[in-house]
Amino acid sequence: MTDEGLPVVAVVGRPNVGKSSLVNRFLGRREAIVEETPGVTRDRRHFVAEWEGRAFEVVDTGGIEPGPEGLDALVVEQAEHAMAIADLILLVVDASAGATEHDLAVAERLRGSETPVLLVANKVDDARDEPSAAELWSLGLGEPFPVSALHGRRSGDLLGELVARLPERAAEGTGEWASVAIVGRPNVGKSSLLNVLLGESRSIVDSTPGTTRDPVDSRIELPDGRRVRIIDTAGMRRQVAVKDPLEYFSWLRSRKTLTRADVAVLVIDVAEGVTGLDQRLAEAIVESGRACVIALNKWDLLDEDDDRTALESGVKRRLRFLDWATVVRTSALTGRGVERVLPAATAAVEAHRHRLPTAAVNKILGDAQTRRPHPRTGGRSVRVLYGAQARVGPPTFVLFANARLQRSYLRYLEHALRDERFAGSPLKLEVRTRAKAPVEG
């Protein structure tokens, strides 16, 4: 799904002609990964750009090559989808290389398209290079527009030409209720899970670990009409082990994704169990304060002899610092259990934003202390005198006590509060005492 009301511009071309660099120029920031290595962009990525008061959606795509096979064929399929939904197609060509056979093949495909095409001659770094762009008339797509995405030369003129060719639409905005980040280590089935949720091949799925390099944003509408943004992130690897610059930038962006998501769906390959990297990703979710759903994926691959209850218990034990997260069993391959992911995620978001009245907070705290009083400290009684919820996202409670509280007792009070509609969300407890001694917790 695209942003309703916004015209769509698809940026296409063969690999390594500067498509992602051009998209970054349109956005005025570095969003699309740019590397000299051909084929860096694989999935199609959607961004909202604006020029002269006109907003539009720009789609960065992978390189189109004739006769693709395997993963390359999936990349081309994503580009084809982008062109199918576009109101304007930008064909980017490397003017310094001239019109290659691959460019001619793409141009032939576009000449039969009903969608308008704007031919962009990239890598024209100064006026002396402009004659090289004239050769691109041979592509049969009209006058080439010379630019330099690297240096920004004539990028403003191109944007002006672009918006002049866009159809008029009333921009309604996204109206998103929440955002969901699908995270996990490489090759655990994140993209497959996304595709099942959306009912389309939105993300490229391949058995090669690390297929997804950029975060991929999609939108889905819930039965009640609320819109949710779903982000499929690049497979996260431990930072110190990432030597490939492409994987390194993908990893950074995946971490950044957590900061703009309401809830993270942590995908675990249940057949392999919880690894050290899975634990580090779980720690990143805790540090970010996001709500969380744990998807135990590839459940269908377990042998009949496997003790599934023991496997799930082992997962929970190794992810004990996420003991508050909702756990669902899924098989992205067969679709089994996937229908429980979005309801669990939306419930976790609601818990993340839930606020308890002060009277309810103090009743919960009072009842909990009656059931199990805090151990006496130095011969004196220790009590929480008063409590209130200070913030949401995550829910944060301030407790006023007459002395320091033991960590184990704080966890007890946290569990008591969690029973009140906070499943799937972390809770933070801040303790203030009359004593000047530092407070545990």
Can you put this structure into words, describing what you see?
The chain is α/β, with parallel strands linked by helices and 441 residues long. Helix content is 31%, strand content 21%. The strands form 3 sheets. The protein has a 6-stranded mixed sheet, with helices on both faces. A 6-stranded mixed sheet has the order 8-9-7-10-11-12, with helices on both faces. α4 links the parallel β5 (117-122) and β6 (145-146). α11 (358-371) packs across α12 (407-418). The longest helix has 15 residues, at 71-85. The radius of gyration is 26 Å and the shape is elongated. The two termini are 44 Å apart. The model is unreliable at 33-43, 68-75, 201-214, 235-242, 245-251 and 435-441 (pLDDT under 50).
- Number of separate helices: 12
**Low-pLDDT sequence parts:** 33-43, 68-75, 201-214, 235-242, 245-251, 435-441
Q: By helix and strand content, what is the structural category?
A: alpha/beta
Percent in helix: 25-40%
Mean pLDDT value: 78
What form results from the Cα inertia axes? elongated
- Could you state the order of secondary-structure elements as H and E? EHEEHEHEHEHEHEEHEHEHEHHEEHE
